[in-house]
Amino acid sequence: MSNNSPRFKEKINALLNTMLKNVYVKNILIALGISVVSFFLVFLFLNIFTRHGRTYPVPDFVGLNKNEVAQLARKHDLRVSITDSVFIMTRRPGTIIEQTPEPGTMVKSNRKIFFIVNALNPQKVEMPNIVGVTLRQAKAMLDLQGLTIGKLDFIADIAVNNVMEQRHNGSEVEPGQMIPKGSTIDLLLGRGLRGEQTALPPLIGLKLHEAKNLLIEASLNLGPVRFDETVETYKDSIEAKVYSQYPAYDGPRSISFGARVELWLTLNESRIPKPKVDGIIDSTYIKILEEEPIEEVLE
């Protein structure tokens, strides 16, 4: 048995040597070896590139500055790109305003995240002359320049709802003066001489910017704004809707010019009361605003 074992090995070695000396067999073995190595290299590359197809939630970059964004992106193996910039006075300059994909979206590693950033230096625009025009005309002119209406103050004057003075940062601002785009302009207006009042609008179910616009059209001021526990981010605050207002709207009623209206907002649709008569209250009020000046309706 011991004699047969060496002979068997010799026969195997001889057979292998004969095969390796054969050009065709040698080429087949080389090709097979290359195929096996290539398969493992491709598999290794795909494994690294796709991480087995695993996905991860996108972190929330909103509100972060440039350095904070870079650190968080490196931590989560993500790439970043700024696609646009805006200027919002109430937000910190140089911070992220909006991101795509949104926070919590599942993505693979090395995904690029796109940002809109709050500009460091606002664009300057020319202050228009709105003295002597109506509140509605003033709002349209300010909107064109990228300016917003702030506080509305009223004094006794025969020109109801006409602008008497335009102010920026507490001081009167002259027409033609260059001010930052997005600035808030406070207005002094006439309230009439006979105790004229305005109509309180229904605001339930509206988003904050919609409610604010309706209050301005009604010659009223936006009072304290409160968000419930469902509103956690800036984007949430944009999407939230009014579920309560004070003074409350329970039907057509009059209120003093410049009065403040407090709002409570939520993302929870179940907290938002349904109108007593669907559409009738809102459409009636909007029709009055569109067709006739408030002061004429009340007279």
Account of the protein in words:
This protein has 299 residues and is an alpha+beta fold. It has four domains: 4-53, no CATH class; 56-118, Trypsin Inhibitor V, Chain A, CATH 3.30.10.20; 123-195, Trypsin Inhibitor V, Chain A (2-Layer Sandwich); 198-299, 2-Layer Sandwich (Trypsin Inhibitor V, Chain A), CATH 3.30.10. 33% of the residues lie in helices and 28% in strands. The chain has eight helices and 16 strands. It has helices at residues 4-21, 23-50, 66-75, 135-144, 208-217, 234-239, 280-291, 294-298, and strands at residues 56-57, 79-86, 96-100, 106-107, 112-118, 124-126, 148-160, 163-168, 171-172, 178-180, 184-190, 197-199, 221-227, 241-246, 254-256, 260-266. The strands form six sheets. A four-stranded mixed β-sheet has the order 7-11-8-9, with helices on one face. Strands 2-5-3 form a three-stranded mixed β-sheet, with helices on one face. The chain has a three-stranded mixed β-sheet with strand order 13-16-14. A hairpin with a 2-residue loop joins β8 (163-168) and β9 (171-172). The N and C termini lie far apart (125 Å).
